[in-house]
């Protein structure tokens, strides 16, 4: 177990080398499968799976619904790595460890991070089962100095003071919106602001009202640290929230959420999430090829 002080570029390098020595095709897209997207990894062709417990320096998944393995393989002709299960701060992991896989992927050559999550809606017009393309985030722990970038900066990953403008890539957002419309999901799809809180408890009514006033459309317990680290090291990021519940913002309502509800809605919407991300990956492949031609 490393402390923050002994966390080094070399640890990520060690993990990347270990994986590179075993993986047939290095990935260009990494997909963090939040609740509801785990089955996407089962659709990869020519798959290679590595349980987190076998990968040097990797934490392990402790949350029901998060399987805990990396799966490498091809999706619509693109070499991908899927994280079947992610790490959360509420599991007791420090933020640098929660986000360690992103830096490992960077060292393996990943250009684009696709990150999904389950979230509660704060926006009156969103319904359970809707999808929200993340256009920006409010990183509550980050505002309180709990950032994955806290501590000595290693310039080989990125700058000391990174800008977060356009973290959620404009082009990927409009592409995903077009795909959602094309697949017939115009009624489900939104674009909004995701707010990350530490969890593991769901929000009190006063907290929910507070977050809505701040400008958040949905709230969850992940994603922002991963997006910050990906942006810091120069990846393009696409984020998608599955709205698993509407967060109660009035008193004297019996309608409380629990993790089983989150898992049930995730299962219900699993196919739609898979279809959308698969189509997006196919389009990203062409975009990345065009970018390379221009370089
Ligand atoms: O990994 P995600 O953000 O999809 O996990 C969801 C959100 C919370 O961690 C937890 C709440 O049920 O599941
Ligand atoms: N914080 C938070 N995380 C969630 N994940 C899924 N639903 C919710 C929610 O209502 N609040």
From TrEMBL:
Pathway(s): Purine metabolism; purine nucleoside salvage
EC number per UniProt: 2.4.2.1
Coiled-coil blocks: none
GO biological process: purine ribonucleoside salvage
Gene3D superfamilies in alphabetical order: Nucleoside phosphorylase domain
Protein family: Belongs to the PNP/MTAP phosphorylase family.
Entry-linked NCBIfam families: PNPH, PNPH-PUNA-XAPA, PRK08202.1
Protein role: Catalyzes the phosphorolytic breakdown of the N-glycosidic bond in the beta-(deoxy)ribonucleoside molecules, with the formation of the corresponding free purine bases and pentose-1-phosphate. Preferentially acts on 6-oxopurine nucleosides including inosine and guanosine.
Name the UniProt record assigns to this protein: Purine nucleoside phosphorylase
């Amino acid at each position: 177990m490393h402390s923050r002080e002994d966390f080094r570029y070399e640890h990520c390098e060690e993990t990347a080398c270990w994986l590179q020595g075993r993986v047939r095709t290095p990935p260009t897209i990494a997909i963090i499968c939040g609740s509801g997207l785990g089955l996407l990894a089962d659709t990869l062709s020519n798959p290679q799976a590595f349980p987190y417990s076998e990968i040097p320096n990797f934490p392990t998944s402790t949350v029901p619904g998060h399987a805990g393995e990396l799966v490498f393989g091809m999706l619509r002709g693109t070499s991908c790595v899927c994280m079947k299960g992610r790490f959360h701060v509420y599991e007791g992991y420090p933020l640098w460890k929660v986000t360690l896989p992103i830096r490992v992927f960077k060292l393996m050559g990943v250009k684009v991070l696709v990150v999904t999550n389950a979230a509660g809606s704060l926006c009156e017009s969103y319904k359970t089962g809707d999808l929200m393309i993340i256009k920006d985030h409010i990183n509550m722990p980050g505002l309180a100095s709990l950032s994955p970038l806290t501590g000595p900066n290693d310039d080989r990953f990125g700058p000391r003071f990174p800008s977060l403008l356009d973290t959620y890539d404009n082009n990927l957002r409009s592409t995903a919106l077009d795909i959602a419309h094309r697949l017939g999901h115009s009624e489900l799809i939104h674009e909004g602001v995701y707010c990350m809180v530490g969890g593991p408890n769901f929000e009190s009514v006063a907290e929910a009202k507070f977050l809505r006033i701040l400008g958040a459309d949905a709230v969850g317990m992940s994603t922002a640290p991963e997006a910050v680290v990906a942006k810091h090291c120069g990846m393009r990021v696409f984020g998608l929230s599955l709205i698993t519940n509407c967060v109660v913002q009035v008193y004297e309502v019996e309608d409380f959420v629990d993790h089983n509800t989150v898992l049930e809605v995730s299962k219900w919407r699993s196919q739609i999430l898979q279809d959308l991300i698969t189509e997006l990956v196919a389009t990203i492949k062409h975009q990345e090829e065009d970018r390379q031609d221009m370089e």
